[in-house]
Amino acid sequence: MHVQTAVPPGGQAEPGEPIIRQYSLRKILGVWAAAAVPMAVLSWVAAPLLEDRLSGPEPLAKALILFMTAGLAWQFVLVLLLVRSELGQLRWSSMRDALWLRSPHDQKTGRTGGRLWLWALLFILLTGVWQLVPGLPAPAARDFAAILESDRGELLFEGAWGWFAILVVMGLFNTVLGEELLFRGVLLPRMQGVFGRRDWIANGVLFAAYHLHMPWVIPSALADTFLYAYPARRFRSAWMGILVHSAQTVVISLLVLFLVLG
Q: What predicted TM-score, i.e. pTM, was given to this entire model?
């Protein structure tokens, strides 16, 4: 079942391409809040409350891992609820189009898939270069990168296969089933009716502002407008954002794995 509706003002749809119902500004902001607010509450209220109940090194980091995993899992549930409300069912054939989970397509050349996937490598490289640019300092107890780069990371993860498993699950919901699926799968294809050709810019700004749970990354996260949102819009495929974003998760997971192995 495809969503049938009129083409949004300024919208573009190729022949044979299913038309996706556009969101109002109110609904766009509502979906954003449904993702951002729970993450902020879990980070700044729930995690400190759990910290005192956890033993061992880095109790706040452990609490954050648990609650961020829960918050990202909620985003996957939110995706399912929104798609179910829109389509009336959750068949893969319909969800694939509704969430842009399809091969990249170049409207200028008419090509689909194939070498277009290589564009993801370029944006992964650009993301890696951007990671070298210093960002705002994070609170010491919440600076996960600093924890991994110091003896604190070894104390936290050495032999800790359970925490590693939770971290992998968190990464899966972060870059595949949670953030990317919500922002590039649900929101981006439905923002053109309000923002026109600048929908990917608005999407990137919303994604940066979503990081209320770690506000020190908001300025640097604005770059994700070009690294995640632009390729997803340019090639009309949420997989582009998922692949680029997931590269960072793979690197972090490997670093933690080395710490677990000691």
A: 0.87
**pLDDT tens for the chain, residues 1 to 262:** 333 343 444 444 555 567 889 999 999 999 999 999 999 999 999 999 999 898 888 899 999 999 999 999 999 999 999 999 999 888 888 899 999 999 999 888 888 888 999 999 999 999 999 988 888 888 988 988 888 888 888 888 988 999 999 999 999 999 999 999 999 999 999 999 999 999 999 999 999 999 999 999 999 999 999 999 999 999 999 999 999 999 989 999 999 999 999 7
Q: What is the DSSP letter of 105?
A: B
Q: Which two tokens stand for residue 120?
A: 């993801």
CA distance 57 to 75: 29
Provide DSSP, 178-193.
IHHIIIIIIIGGG-HH
How many C-beta atoms lie closer than 10 Å to residue 126's C-beta?
15
Query: How far is it, in rounded angstroms, from Cα 112 to Cα 132?
Result: 33
Return the amino acid letter for 120.
A
